[in-house]
């Protein structure tokens, strides 16, 4: 007879992964210098878009950052978004023609968390 034990904390839930994404976005947002905004692909979020689709687009927009220092800072957030998106989104297409600030994208992640978790 063989028993297999799994540490439950290693199996992230939807709420847990989204909470980690929110926390990482918040840390990154606070670390940004007000005069140092980076451009990322703008993501329009309207009432018909789902939070899951927005988070898929956010991952793709962050992955396109060309600044090595910023990409290093956003790496953990990108990996967390990828983990979430593997479980929740089938596909999304990013419009790369329009640019916005990283701060705006991080603020939207906070709003997505509130919509999805807090209702």
Label this structure with key terms:
mainly alpha, Interleukin-4, 2 strands, single chain, 119 residues, disordered N terminus, globular
Give a verbal description of the structure.
- There is one protein chain.
- This protein is mainly α.
- The chain has helices at residues 14-31, 51-63, 68-88, 102-118; strands at residues 39-41, 99-101.
- Strands 1-2 form a two-stranded antiparallel sheet.
- The N and C termini lie far apart (45 Å).
- The model is unreliable at 1-13 (pLDDT under 50).
Q: Quick gist of this model?
A:
Helix content is 58%, strand content 5%.
Task: Give the topology.
Blueprint lengths: L13 H18 L7 E3 L9 H13 L4 H21 L10 E3 H17 L1
Antiparallel strand pairs: 1-2
Morphology? globular
Record field, number of beta strands: 2
| N-to-C SSE string, H for helix and E for strand | HEHHEH
User: Biggest sheet, strands in spatial order?
Assistant: 1-2
Total helical elements:
4
């Amino acid at each position: 007879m063989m028993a297999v034990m799994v540490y439950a904390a290693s199996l992230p839930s939807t709420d847990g992964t989204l909470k980690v994404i929110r926390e990482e976005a918040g840390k990154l947002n606070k670390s940004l210098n007000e005069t140092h905004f980076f451009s990322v692909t703008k993501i329009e979020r309207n009432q018909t878009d789902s939070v899951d689709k927005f988070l898929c687009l956010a991952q793709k927009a962050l992955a396109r950052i060309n600044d090595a220092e910023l990409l290093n800072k956003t790496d953990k957030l990108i990996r967390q978004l990828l983990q979430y998106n593997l479980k929740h989104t089938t596909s999304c297409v990013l419009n790369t023609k329009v640019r916005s600030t990283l701060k705006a994208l991080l603020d939207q992640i906070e709003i997505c968390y509130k919509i999805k978790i807090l209702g």
